[in-house]
Amino acid sequence: MATSASTASLRVGLAQINPRVGDLNFNLAKVEEFVAKAEQAGCDVVAFPELTLSGYPPEDLVLKPGFVADIRVALEKVAARSGRCAVVVGFVDNVDDGTVEPSSARPPRLFNAAALCANGVVAGVYHKQLLPNYAVFDEARYFAAGHDDVTLYDVGGVVLSLSVCEDLWVAEGPVARQRAAGSQLCLNINGSPFDRGKSGVREATVVERARETAMPIVYVNQVCGQDELVFDGGSVVVDSTGNVVARAAHFEEELLIADVRVPTRAPSVRAIPVSSAGSQRAAVPSRVAVIDDPRDRVLGALALGTRDYVTKNGFTDVVLGLSGGIDSALVAAVAVEALGAAHVHGVSMPSRYSSTGSRTDAADLARNLGIDLLTIPIEPAFASYLAMTTDAFSGLATDLTEENLQSRVRGTTLMALSNKFGWMVLTTGNKSELAVGYFTLYGDSVGGFAVIKDIFKTDVYALSHRVNERAGRELIPRSTLDKAPSAELRPDQRDDQSLPPYDVLDAVLALYVEQDRTAAEIIAFGFEESLVRRIVGLVDNSEYKRRQLPPGVRVTSKAFGKDRRLPITNAYRG
Amino acid sequence: MATSASTASLRVGLAQINPRVGDLNFNLAKVEEFVAKAEQAGCDVVAFPELTLSGYPPEDLVLKPGFVADIRVALEKVAARSGRCAVVVGFVDNVDDGTVEPSSARPPRLFNAAALCANGVVAGVYHKQLLPNYAVFDEARYFAAGHDDVTLYDVGGVVLSLSVCEDLWVAEGPVARQRAAGSQLCLNINGSPFDRGKSGVREATVVERARETAMPIVYVNQVCGQDELVFDGGSVVVDSTGNVVARAAHFEEELLIADVRVPTRAPSVRAIPVSSAGSQRAAVPSRVAVIDDPRDRVLGALALGTRDYVTKNGFTDVVLGLSGGIDSALVAAVAVEALGAAHVHGVSMPSRYSSTGSRTDAADLARNLGIDLLTIPIEPAFASYLAMTTDAFSGLATDLTEENLQSRVRGTTLMALSNKFGWMVLTTGNKSELAVGYFTLYGDSVGGFAVIKDIFKTDVYALSHRVNERAGRELIPRSTLDKAPSAELRPDQRDDQSLPPYDVLDAVLALYVEQDRTAAEIIAFGFEESLVRRIVGLVDNSEYKRRQLPPGVRVTSKAFGKDRRLPITNAYRG
Hints:
The structure is a homodimer.
Chain A lengths: L6 E10 L7 H17 L4 E3 L17 H17 L4 E8 L17 E8 L2 E7 L11 H4 L10 E3 L2 E7 L9 H7 L4 E5 L8 H16 L3 E4 L2 E4 L2 E4 L3 E3 L5 E4 L6 E10 L8 E4 L18 H19 L5 E4 L4 H14 L4 E5 L7 H14 L2 E4 L3 H10 L11 H22 L2 E4 L3 H6 L12 E2 L6 H15 L6 H5 L12 H4 L3 H13 L4 H6 L4 H13 L1 H4 L28
Parallel strand pairs in A: 1-2, 2-3, 6-15, 7-8, 8-9, 16-17, 16-19, 17-18, 19-20
Antiparallel strand pairs in A: 1-14, 3-4, 4-5, 6-7, 9-12, 10-11, 12-13
């Protein structure tokens, strides 16, 4: 609506929702709920995240033509429901704009699209131009690139342009070209996954683009867990000088409302008329949400990722083995945060090698967290396996086989509880262990979700301390934090008998796994050659084990999952 | 070499090799070995498969700049070794040709390249133009598209052009444009994975392109197993009228040699001079290898895929549970074909519910195949688990939990043998079971390789009959072929108590899993609604289980693996 001779103001709603992949009815109802709220708040436009209707990322679901057709039906319903308040939703478009060039024998023919709906119709459609196809992203598998920069929309007297996620990440790209064509406001919808370094980079990118184009940017992100990915929200409005004027919560749904002021439109700019200006109203103050401690971002991601994976897959309760060690303690604390103590079940499974301290620590943790604790000693099954294999193993020394047997008895016991009670098993391995294969396949790795799969051991400690700090008491027992890590699969075992100190190990792993350095390069950085060769060999040789792990929350820029697609059969030792 | 006034003849070697992904020294030695053979045979040019030096597909290895640098070193060695016989090898090029446009914030900067080496130098480099990024292919993740059609080479007096795999699959594409620029011979190098429908399609495509361009095509494929993929060889030479004049073996290494006749070059065509014409020599007859029975192609793929996975990962021996059923029988037969009977170890693990017939069938199979058979009854461990969970399960009925326990005792027992003796466990689940989740995670699904993961149950029968047919006797016992399938996890259990008849199930699965049909579409084809809904629900709900399976040989156009990337958290029920 016009507010003075030289500026106009648009009230925008940023619908930071938690959609469900594939659940078109749920997503449609969610859109309708937030549109109603935005209308009540007097918004001129309300924008939803990338691929709103399908949920993001829909992956190979979009290869089903029937699914794409169902999305179209949902879009028509959004349009039919729309009124003066324009609605921007993401969807999968199958209407070819004629610009697709053959990139292969089977080039994609779909578009990652944003629709602008108002007054009962789809007023316009934008096709995403830049398609991320790196890291966890496979968008070139599904989508062709759009090419249109000149379609602008007049919404409430303001000329705006649409863009989708990656379009914003390149200087002199689609957003700058839209600005050159006359856009006064960039409306960018996103499915931008969390990693611990990304919130800062993401917002800096929005600010940089606003400054480059001297145009305000409305940046809407979703907030949910979807398999290994967490989307942390943090939707923002940045003004044309690069100031963050509004920011939504992280890890929670929110309708963020902001009044965005832009210069009055130049009469020469051609824009599709979408909606009229609203009536005069008082300006709304916008909030700017903040998370101070970076560990809280990671803990927030772990809790949201766990909650959404468990509940969206139809589970209410989880079960995990409590060894008395720090990994299971942190996972239990996250699970309680995610699901509530009544829905978390701990199991202590002592063996002939378990220390008294471990049993006490497990019991203390369960009491501190208020979760139930079942105790099932594993000796009977372990002894049976030893008896069953006596003949076959006759004359052979005890080795890793017997250690793995204990771990597998525990895994089988947890799965029996899962089967009988319908609880999802949470796996407790950390990234350091999973990297070097320091776990037993079908043993401690069993489960539906691997909560701290992408957290190095050194970070497990940092996060555990933060858990206690936030609680204001020792939820995780001090002795768990202080003792030397051990798998307790043979007498007096300690992790440091098999592995380098975790600070060294994690530093080498960060270079090798997350930064794609070769062994030779890491040695050149000053790490000891035999140590590096040993670690790299362990990582390479356990690729087959990691392929059989459950999914877990991605919190770094390269997790073990879609991020890191190395061959199992791989002889490279550079 | 010139043979008459109007035609010239070029002797080409098609080096259908079995490379190793990441093993640059091995691949380099293999290239040198085949170059020497080609030179001895008087070849003017010898061509190797796509990405020869890294092995194909190298996946995320190419994201390591150190790996790409090492490939360059290997290429320089090939060039240094080359003489008058030109050598075409595939490699990863990191020299930008200046044509890369930003497709995202992190566009790929590498090229899937072919180098033409002769007389000690790299005479030219070609960049693949069409990049498959569908099905199992992720080439847009790694590579930018090349754009050059006009660089031609004069090799032995013949003007030829280079192309890589997908470049050949599009009409009016790179090959046609090279022809228009003056090429007389298309030299196309490939890493084209097997699926049971593909050999025919692939060769028809080569023939079609030869006819379209009226140009002979030399098509070189590799022959190997690499994780889930099998490359079946079948390299061909097609003349300018579309006749197949030479075809290499399937599933075996071979240097195929052919004399290719082309019109004498037009003096106006500009081509980089690479090598001189050779001396006069007698023409060589070329062989045209054939596989008649389509089941032999699938059996060949299973054997090669299994052999290469096992041996390239450093194993010599495999172990598998022999239930007396047809799945384990077929897997055992394939393993014997792949590795030899002395390297295959069968284990019979009877329970309180195992029939006498099952034990006899397992023993008969082992005897027929000449493999050893260990018998380890699972009752002791099973009874221990029941005792351990008596308190926790008090008052609750027996259910799937106890069935799964038996399967997990077997899985744990196999893993103990694997750990103690260094044998890789082969998993025996078929595609029908894995599709509907009719298996126990950490039970019958444990193992390093799932040989028949991509074979529907109906095809398991067809292949088993063929195994006996080829052997000329009943390797797989008749009673195994004839009896009703059963998991034998409770008294009188049969698969058809839990599942529809396999012919119906497999027909629905082919539509749902392999052809991306929705439930609604399948029902519209005439299948019973409740049956389709039930099957589709089973498939969707067991996605999380399939993610934890070992790799297995892909033999269809859509296997459970990189081919089918559906979200686990997925509410779509269309």
